[in-house]
């Protein structure tokens, strides 16, 4: 899926995020809910407006899943299989939401990392996150 150089770019950006997963994740979710209000359907437990503590907690979980994917780029299917099952079979999240999440995540990365999130990094992260979304949606078939 990714070349050695692309993997290095993913890891480089992840190193900048590591330790700040809750904040990045909460901002990602808040942006997702604001830009695409229909996605809030799956997060009613967060409240309206979202409870900050719960938003940080769920944001942490979302970014931790991305961290698992970063650590297991060679075998995303095996690493994310339980998460894919959860989203497809239990939560029944519409798979059209994953590209929306990817788009919002890239905006959050660009806004925080600015010059460190180069065009090349954005292209690689788009490729990586799209691969992650493909794995998460495979259980829908």
UniProtKB/TrEMBL annotation:
Keywords: Heme, Iron, Metal-binding, Oxygen transport, Transport. Coiled coil: none annotated. The keyword Iron applies. GO terms for cellular component: blood microparticle; haptoglobin-hemoglobin complex; hemoglobin complex. Residues 1-141 form the Globin domain. Pfam families: Globin. GO terms for molecular function: haptoglobin binding; heme binding; metal ion binding; organic acid binding; oxygen binding; oxygen carrier activity; peroxidase activity. GO terms for biological process: hydrogen peroxide catabolic process. The keyword Plastid does not apply. InterPro entries: Globin, Globin-like_sf, Globin/Proto, Hemoglobin_a-typ, Hemoglobin_oxygen_transport. Belongs to the globin family. This is Hemoglobin subunit mu. The gene is HBM.
